[in-house]
Amino acid sequence: MSWLANEAEDYWGRPADRSKTGGWVHAALILGALDSHSCCSEKSTVRSFVDYNSGKSLYSHFDVGYGAGIEMVERLATMGIAVNLVTYLNGTMHLPSASSANIVTDFMGTSFLLCLFGGFLADSFLGRYRTIMIFSVVQAVGTGVLATSTAIPQLRPPPCQKEGNGVQTCQQATGFQMGMLYLSLYLIAIGTGGLKSSVSGFGSDQFDDKDEKESRQMAFFFSRFFFFISLGTLLAVTVLVWIQDEVGRSLGYGICSAAMFLAIIVFLAGSKKYRYKRSVGSPITHIAEVVAAAVKKRKLELPQDSSFLYEEAPQGTGIHHTDQFR
Q1: pLDDT at 43 > cutoff 60
Q2: For the purposes of burial, counting CB atoms within 10 Å of the CB of 326, is it exposed (0-12), middle (13-18) or buried (19 or more)?
Q3: Global confidence as pTM
Q4: Which runs of E-coded beta strand occur in 106-255?
Q5: Taking the C-alpha atoms of 39, 51, 24 and 111 in order, what is their torsion angle to the nearest 10 degrees?
Q6: What tens digit of pLDDT does each residue of 110-145 get?
Q7: pLDDT band for position 21 (cuts 50, 70, 90)
Q8: What's the rounded Cα separation, in Å, for the pair 163 and 267?
Q9: Which residues have CB under 8 Å from 114's CB, separation 6+?
Q10: What SS3 string covers 41-58?
């Protein structure tokens, strides 16, 4: 078995040594923090979850401890803000219920649509590592701005006042106050779009799918990856929402921001041990090229002999031509 990981480079751009880079130890940093004795010793090893000779489970020997990972914190921040945002907009910013609901749906929709933009940047220009770093900082700043806007009285309207006849008079948020709120929400949306498009892919880059042992570890990574997504969502809609309602929104949102900055530090800790794969271009670009070429050549006569057609793929690897759709 080769000591080089398939199509991967190390931090310095050299072919990645599979014994020193990638694997479950460093993929775990994407999910969470390692325990002290598994990340601080050069001689420490992480045993695979299956002994490939005996087929016995080795879960009890797993030396990876989990902390607040990039993906879990992203779910914690996004869902912790979204599920309870309508009550804040309606009760504190004094917006109508319909307007509040529209703001939340626009925020969530933008977060998921921006995944296409984040994936395009990662595949075509930045690479997954830089994309994760840049957009995680953007999201951390966004949650920090949101926490600040809920803590400073000047950035939200005054509480409703009761008149003598018992009717409440509420002052709606000003344009500046709503502008600060929108700034924070859409910074978070931009960060979410960049993170969701790259975190799982960068995690899979730490494994060589041509190696039997590492391909099985990759499957285990993805099961834990989706577990962390679910765990982050669960904590967001229970613990974080309770803190927002019972203790204070500024504290709840501040926890999101602090957790994201901590996750960035944990993620950076493995920078020199990750495996990196070069950007090969976005599928969106390739699809656009095909559509553009088809439109440009729509009036050309199709040759009867398929050997006259231009092919980039090596002989024998392309899709066989057919007359079925002529």
Answers
A1: no
A2: exposed
A3: 0.75
A4: 161-162, 168-169
A5: -140
A6: 999 999 999 899 888 888 889 999 999 999 999 999
A7: low
A8: 54
A9: 189, 190, 192, 193, 194
A10: CCCCCCCCCECCCCCCEC
